[in-house]
Amino acid sequence: MNMSVNIAGVEWKNPVTVASGTFGSGEEFSEYVDLNKLGAVTTKGVANVPWAGNPTPRVAEVYGGMMNAIGLQNPGIDLFCKRDIPFLKKYDTKIIVNVCGHAPEEYLAVVERLAEEPIDMMEINISCPNVNAGFLAFGQDARHVEELTAQIKKIAKQPVIMKLTPNVTDITEIAKGAEAGGADAVSLINTLTGMKIDINRKTFALANKTGGVSGPIVKPVAVRMVYQVAQAVKIPIIGMGGISCAEDAIEFILAGASAVSVGTANFHNPAVTMEVIDGIEAYMKKNGFESVKDMVGIVK
Amino acid sequence: MNMSVNIAGVEWKNPVTVASGTFGSGEEFSEYVDLNKLGAVTTKGVANVPWAGNPTPRVAEVYGGMMNAIGLQNPGIDLFCKRDIPFLKKYDTKIIVNVCGHAPEEYLAVVERLAEEPIDMMEINISCPNVNAGFLAFGQDARHVEELTAQIKKIAKQPVIMKLTPNVTDITEIAKGAEAGGADAVSLINTLTGMKIDINRKTFALANKTGGVSGPIVKPVAVRMVYQVAQAVKIPIIGMGGISCAEDAIEFILAGASAVSVGTANFHNPAVTMEVIDGIEAYMKKNGFESVKDMVGIVK
Amino acid sequence: MSEKKRENCTVVSQECIAAGIYSLWIQTEKIAADAKPGQFVSMYTKDKTKLLPRPISICEIDKEQGRLHLVYRVTGENTGTEEFSRLQPGDTLPVIGPLGNGFPVEKAEGKRVFLMGGGIGVPPILELAKEMNCAEKQIVVGYRDCHTFLREEFEAAGTLYISTEDGSVGTKGNVMDAIREKKLQADMIYACGPTPMLRAIKQYAEENNIECYISLEERMACGIGACLACVCKSREKDAHSNVNNKRICKDGPVFLSTEVEI
Amino acid sequence: MSEKKRENCTVVSQECIAAGIYSLWIQTEKIAADAKPGQFVSMYTKDKTKLLPRPISICEIDKEQGRLHLVYRVTGENTGTEEFSRLQPGDTLPVIGPLGNGFPVEKAEGKRVFLMGGGIGVPPILELAKEMNCAEKQIVVGYRDCHTFLREEFEAAGTLYISTEDGSVGTKGNVMDAIREKKLQADMIYACGPTPMLRAIKQYAEENNIECYISLEERMACGIGACLACVCKSREKDAHSNVNNKRICKDGPVFLSTEVEI
Ligand SMILES: Cc1cc2nc3c(=O)[nH]c(=O)nc-3n(C[C@H](O)[C@H](O)[C@H](O)COP(=O)(O)OP(=O)(O)OC[C@H]3O[C@@H](n4cnc5c(N)ncnc54)[C@H](O)[C@@H]3O)c2cc1C
Ligand SMILES: Cc1cc2nc3c(=O)[nH]c(=O)nc-3n(C[C@H](O)[C@H](O)[C@H](O)COP(=O)(O)OP(=O)(O)OC[C@H]3O[C@@H](n4cnc5c(N)ncnc54)[C@H](O)[C@@H]3O)c2cc1C
Ligand SMILES: Cc1cc2nc3c(=O)[nH]c(=O)nc-3n(C[C@H](O)[C@H](O)[C@H](O)COP(=O)(O)O)c2cc1C
Ligand SMILES: Cc1cc2nc3c(=O)[nH]c(=O)nc-3n(C[C@H](O)[C@H](O)[C@H](O)COP(=O)(O)O)c2cc1C
Ligand code: FES
Ligand code: FES
Q: What is the torsional sign of CA B201, B207, B213, B214?
């Protein structure tokens, strides 16, 4: 049985990675998870310079999920390259660096800096809803996405994954924009924008008022979008949104995802990715699938 | 203490109604609920002619909620006026008729037919994601919404509530379109489009493939949208999406809803609306609110 | 007005009566008093992530003690029925009912009757058999294998014929095979079971001009006729829907076989 | 590598020790062995709709028997802590830990020390007091009213001073009032409690040039330093974050008072 998948020319040993921002750069989780067993590690978003992020409270629990408004706090690409990439290089897994920015120049600065680094792929976060900038709507407009993708592709030395926001009228338009710009893959979904009000304190649960909803509660929307995008583009899809067990991961794969990311579930059980990988293997055995790619998108 | 609310000139005895499609036309639920106690009854969507709806399975359970693709089955406006309105008139509650259609003419036919009927308000469903027609994207375009609203307002004899879909990039644009078209109120959210795949049978859980997600899992998105719309328009908002208890209802009111609808929760406990009404009253007492309108939108 | 409610019923007893099949008795305030054979109840889980009702047919009604007997199959891991299977005497269980129309038991009077049940459609046949007053009460039930259940109860209620898919008990095959093998005859049929079985019975009944009532299944959300989730195609334009759709939860689950298309 | 895990701990005992305050002993495989005073554990609920951890400080460590003592407040209805309060001996509870840095207990050697706790910040002071080896161990704890808890344990561990907001026990007021009233002196402070109390202690320590360690609280998602939810402002640019943010779950919860802004 063949658990490996090929995403835009990069061979992962299995289809499971972690969702950006839920796993740091892997170091903290390495006490709980054997990183060698992951198909890839996707890092927290990194920008050209350090970002301080939002005021606290930055997270709130909601029924069946959570909301976050971390605000993309990150140490900047310099420290990241010095510390986090060497750490991950010690493991036999693929490295996907998630990139964020307020403006095209900021993304490009990071992508350029990554060109000489020993990483395997990069994931461009054009969708984080927590940064209060005019740039917010960027990932919500197909033309802008196409343009940014094309600019990035011009200088990127590694395959580029465009990470899509679900807060749009038609996700297929955005995915097609990414594909037209030359993206090697797309990943989805980022968080759904939500709000929680504390009725006793009569205020917002998050300092930022709104936050990104994630966890099991977003799965039906995420599966739908992965399915729609799979019908709309030819590039591979990394599916995510509420994956908490192997069954969830398989749902995304049958809907059209070539690989999956586990996010919020890591907070509930830090070793959940290991269970997801084992569970996919067990399902394949039981259902007579020889290779992960034989499952991708078979429900049409 | 004053539980009554005035929505576009119509005085409800309390701010609680039911979400269209989850309560039939009230008759079946009248065995479990004293309809006289509801602020209003909102009926299942009705079209100019009978609709057969979608093939089954039409519903599926998902973690913390459900998906439906009923496909707006309805007996048509003639039978509706003959049977359902007289039934509801026996009760001391307001009647809101939910209207659906494939094209403006179909909506207008129903609105015109309702002009002489003893109903209190009408709610225009421009957002049901289950009808496979080119018209689907209608509620997702602010200009179209403005136009349809204006056309309806020209002939409507009762206040018009435009019911918004959450499957859009910017809900405030759509709400502003409704307001510009002359809507007396907006209601939101309709269901989020989702999908569920049965990994054992390797097929979709719903015959329609996609369905509308509702229940507690949609609440964070719904509260966010109600809040955003409350900042964007001056007309009253009827808030809904996952309300299962008084605390949920209050969250919507603090976010800016003048009234609320209880939907999927009716399937879990048919008398839940009574608990919601009592719970709002208890909260007002405890927190020293004299009137429901003193709570509306106070979290800013 | 508003005289029905979701009752918090108390579990009287629970037992596993065959592999994955559970027999549950619950104490009700009012549901048992109103119940008829062929009706069902909606059972609710305590798992806060599972909100929809589980419709389960009524297997026996003890009006004197106000109790209901429910027999159900656990459909898999992490399901609502698995949660129910862990209920202990004294535990409570939210239930709505009785729901649906039930079998027209009175129509059997003086007739030779087939009472047919297949798989997890067997249980509702029991109360029907117990209440039925007819000329010839031929109970024909089909199981997958030797893990039969409710046999003694059926034997006490009428003449019992069994079929099993693997032939380990009674006729090898399904309930139709049992009828053919035993050359049974009837003027009236009542049936509950999987759709292929009901389809065969419906065809047999229509070919032989036998009045036949079948109990159908569909995914439900409200269970009380309001949401239009659980429809089946009806031959005539239905008076409620004004289209060719009948609600299984409210207009059914029992239909005259000629009324519906399955 | 990957030597830590979410343990399914068994409840040894649970008791309500004051209104809404519960005392829980759990049996751990490994957590107790590694634990230090001032560290915390993440407790998980069984309610499938509540996914985030509940961080709870370690109140006592029984290394011999591999047990932890946790004392927590039920914060309201339908909360995770309410669920915990229903745990019975033998029940299991998913736990991760020990987490965070803990108090630098060794720095107290030879010093006159204040060990200060307020409200639900009182419990972690107990293990600290028990392990501390210092010249003068002055335990100053504040409660709202006469519903004090862990008093006997503190009396056994050092010299105990109590404040209550309503004056029903000890000094009327907060822990700072108790210090002033009793004219207590220290060269070293360890404190845990609500932010206003910590703010007052921090100011007092800085004005009097006393080395002071405070344990902070913030909403958490991962509890292990990966998500950046639980930050506080740090005076210097933090080496990990490269901005002026420290992670309370990983770099804390205990900080030198001069390191952080609260
Ligand atoms: C009128 C009627 C009477 C029934 N009587 C019995 C009975 O007496 N004994 C028995 O074992 N089963 C009966 N069933 C089937 C029973 O309702 C399902 O097996 C049960 O709902 C499955 O729930 P679960 O928690 O095991 O599965 P889950 O997978 O957790 O269910 C998920 C959702 O799907 C629904 N669902 C799943 N399977 C079915 C099904 N076959 N029919 C309708 N809804 C389904 C559930 O109600 C729930 O909403 C009856 C069904 C109907 C419609
Ligand atoms: C390092 C640390 C140590 C703590 N030690 C103790 C202790 O020993 N005893 C004790 O009673 N309490 C302690 N707390 C506070 C305790 O974590 C919260 O009271 C608890 O998480 C509330 O959960 P709940 O299920 O009651 O509330 P819910 O309202 O159900 O919680 C919802 C979410 O908010 C979080 N949350 C709510 N209040 C707080 C809070 N004050 N701090 C952090 N997260 C919160 C919960 O963890 C959960 O994710 C500590 C907090 C921290 C950060
Ligand atoms: C705390 C937190 C931080 C996140 N940070 C990032 C980030 O830096 N970059 C990014 O692209 N997505 C980020 N995300 C989004 C996740 O990668 C993922 O798209 C989303 O959470 C849905 O998956 P899940 O439901 O499995 O968590 C973050 C999510 C969470 C919960
Ligand atoms: C079974 C079902 C049928 C629905 N039918 C309609 C409808 O006919 N017209 C409409 O405007 N909304 C319809 N809705 C949407 C609800 O009115 C409501 O907007 C949505 O379910 C969110 O609220 P909830 O989470 O409380 O259910 C339907 C929802 C469900 C679950
Ligand atoms: S389940 Fe709602 S109408 Fe039958
Ligand atoms: S809770 Fe995740 S970094 Fe502290």
A: negative
Residue A135 CB coordination number (10 Å): 15
pLDDT tens digits along A129-156? 434 445 455 788 899 899 999 999 999 9
Neighbouring chains of C at 3+ CB pairs under 8 Å are A, B, D
The dihedral through the CA atoms of C233, C238, C244, C249 has a sign that is: negative
Please give the share of chain D, as a percent, with pLDDT higher than 70.
99
Question: Ramachandran region of residue A37, left (φ > 0), alpha (ψ -120 to 50) or beta?
Answer: alpha
Active site residue ranges of A: 128
Q: Give the residue from B260, B256, B247, B191 showing the smallest Cα distance to B227.
A: B256
CB of D54 shorter than 6 A to ligand 2: yes
How long is chain B? 300
Residue D49 forms contact with B (CB below 8 Å)? yes
Q: Please give the pLDDT value at position A102.
A: 87
- Cα–Cα distances in Å, from B142 out to B177, B187, B288, D50? 5, 15, 39, 37
Q: What is the pLDDT of residue A139?
A: 87
As a whole-number percent, the residues of chain B with pLDDT over 70 amount to: 97
Our CA-based measurement puts residue A30 at a distance from the nearest CA of chain B, in whole angstroms, of 30
Cα angle B240-B245-B247, degrees, rounded to a multiple of 5: 85
State the virtual CA torsion across B174, B179, B180, B182 in degrees, nearest 10: 130
**Could you give the angle at which helices B219-232 and B246-255 cross, rounded to 10 degrees?**
30
* d(C-alpha B166, C-alpha B174), whole Å: 10
Ligand 4 centroid, distance to D141 Cα (angstroms): 54
Cβ distance B221 to A194 less than 8 Å, yes or no, reads yes
**Residue C168, SS3 per DSSP:** coil
Please state, as a whole number, how many other Cβ atoms lie within 10 Å of the Cβ of residue C228: 27
Which residue in this structure is represented by tokens 């040993």?
Answer: A13
State whether the Cα torsion B71-B73-B77-B83 is positive or negative.
Answer: negative
A233: burial class by Cβ within 10 Å (0-12, 13-18, 19+)?
A: buried
pLDDT tens string A62-96:
999 999 999 999 999 999 999 999 999 999 999 99
Q: What DSSP string runs through B18-87?
A: E-TTSSTTSTGGGGTS-GGGSSEEEPPPB-SS-B--PPSP-EEEETTEEEE-----B--HHHIIIIIHHH
Residues contacting C54, CB < 8 A, separation 6+? C42, C43, C44, C45, C72, C80, C81, C84
C231-261: pLDDT as tens digits: 999 999 999 999 999 999 999 999 999 999 9
**Low-confidence residues of chain B: pLDDT under 50:** 129-133, 135
Question: Which residues, including other chains, have CB under 8 Å from residue D140's CB and lie 6 or more apart?
Answer: D114, D115, D116, D117, D161, D162, D163, D175, D178, D179, D184
- Global pTM reads 0.97
DSSP D63: T
Global ipTM: 0.96
- B249 Cα–ligand 5 center, Å: 25
Helix ranges restricted to H, A97-184: 104-114, 142-155, 171-180
Q: Comparing C-alpha atoms, which of B195, B221, B272 is closest to residue B23?
A: B272
Give the span between the Cα atoms of D5 and C36, in whole angstroms.
54
- Predicted local confidence at residue C83, as pLDDT: 97
At B103 the pLDDT is 87
Across the range D7-18, mean pLDDT stands at 97
Residue C173 is predicted with a pLDDT of 93
* Domains, in order of start, for chain D: 5-99 (2.40.30.10), 105-217 (3.40.50.80)
Compute the distance between CA of residue D44 and CA of residue D47 in angstroms, rounded to an integer: 9
Residue B132: the pLDDT is 44
Q: Is D221 in the pocket of ligand 2 (CB under 6 A)?
A: no
- A193 phi and psi angles, rounded to 5 deg: -75, 130
Closest ligand 6 atom number to CA of residue A24? 3
